[in-house]
Amino acid sequence: MIFEICADSLDAVKLAEKYKVKRVELCSALSVGGLTPSIGLIEECCALGEVEVHVMIRHKEGNFVYSPEDIQIMENDIIAAAEAGAKGVVFGCLDSQNEVDIKQNKLLFKLAKSLDLEVTFHRAIDFCPDYSKSLEELIEIGFDRVLSSGQEGTAEKGISKLKAMTEQANGRIQIMAGSGVNEKNAKQIALSGVDALHFTIHHKTEQESDLGMGSESKMNEAKLKSIIKLFN
Q1: How buried is residue 229: exposed, middle or buried, by Cβ count under 10 Å (0-12/13-18/19+)?
Q2: Residue-level pLDDT at 205
Q3: Do 208 and 214 form a contact (C-beta atoms < 8 A)?
Q4: Per-domain residue ranges for the chain?
């Protein structure tokens, strides 16, 4: 089983490296599903060299509907990620009906591939009204993989759709399960046939910082060790 860590810090990427995890999805703002991280963080994580760094390309929270100006920002961020040494990028563009926006995704996909990047379509697919149709569209565009919770709040609840997606994909695109993956359900989710498991290895401290600046994150090394052990 391939593991991908959803990371928002250099410490998380170092921990992934320590346990020889294949990939990290590098983000900021995990509390809103992940946003594009700073260029400094991307550079430092890529400099470690042992773990594939796949950068989230999503500069604003909320939905996945983007204006032409948004797309220009995303193009700039893809180029910057490639120059910083990233192995791949992660994005997903939908139209106002939450259907896959073919034109926008093709534009960003072609740019990423011209820079030798792998391309993952993120959990925007979980918002699509017809996941089967959307999956075929992503395969047609050429995406390397898609991250999904099976259109449920957690991957554990979405196992039946994850299984259906894996069967439909039939090796044409990688299916990666994410959202709520932990040491108690990872094995069960893996039985759906997915190609990879995606999960965080941090937890928020109870202590809020002064002046409303948020709470600190700490690494949960035990969680990572436990999940890896399940598959050894």
Answers
A1: exposed
A2: 58
A3: yes
A4: 2-206+217-230
Q: Which residues contact 17 (CB under 8 A, 6 or more apart)?
A: 48, 50, 51
From CA 184, how far away is CA 199, in angstroms rounded?
A: 13
Residues in the chain: 232
Fold of 2-206+217-230: TIM Barrel (3.20.20)
Rounded to the nearest integer, the mean pLDDT of the chain is: 94
* CB neighbours of residue 50 within 10 Å: 11
Check: CB of residue 54 under 8 Å from CB of residue 25: yes
At position 97, the amino acid (one-letter code) is Q
Residue 127 tokens read as 């918002």
- Residue 162 has a CB neighbour count (10 Å cut-off) of 27
The answer to whether the predicted template modeling score (pTM) of the entire model surpasses 0.85 is yes
Cβ atoms 198, 177 nearer than 8 A: yes
Q: What pLDDT sits at residue 204?
A: 62
Tell me: pLDDT of 219 over 80.
yes
Please write the tens of the pLDDT for every residue from 135-165: 999 999 999 999 999 999 999 999 999 999 9
**Calpha distance 105→101 (Å, rounded):** 6
Asked if 128 contacts 106 with a C-beta cutoff of 8 angstroms, the reply is no
